[in-house]
Amino acid sequence: MMSGVRKQFDVSRLTAELSALKVELLSAQCAMDRVRLQYSPQDIVAFGEGQALKRIVASAQALHQFCSQIEAQIKHQESERAGNQ
């Protein structure tokens, strides 16, 4: 998306997408917690399939990067609101 150009979108669709995302991320977190609580990182690396582990890590890194961008935007918006009060 080009800087300064706002994409038009359906707010109700965005709200529904975010609601579904929340459920899917909670499910993924629960799955990771099950594995994390049962196996050590050393065992996972030693006995897990290498390519699958690399894909898992890449997915987690992509989620972290995107969520960090959202978090930074939230903080920016909150600081702007605090400055306007």
In DSSP terms (H or I, runs of 4 or more residues), the helix count works out at 3
- Please give the share of residues in helix: over 70%
Query: Into which percentage range does the β-strand content fall?
Result: under 5%
By DSSP, the count of extended strands is: 0
Largest sheet: number of strands, sense, barrel closure: none
What is the CA-based Rg, rounded?
18 Å
SSE pattern: HHH
Quote the distance from N terminus to C terminus: 32 Å
Count of spatially separate domains: 2
Describe the structure concisely:
The chain is mostly helical and 85 residues long. The protein contains three helices and no strands.
Please describe what this structure looks like.
This protein has 85 residues and is mainly alpha-helical. It folds into 2 domains: 11-48; 49-85. 81% of the residues lie in helices and 0% in strands. It has helices at residues 11-38, 41-47, 50-83. The longest helix is centred in the C-terminal third of the chain and has 34 residues, at 50-83. The mean pLDDT is 92.
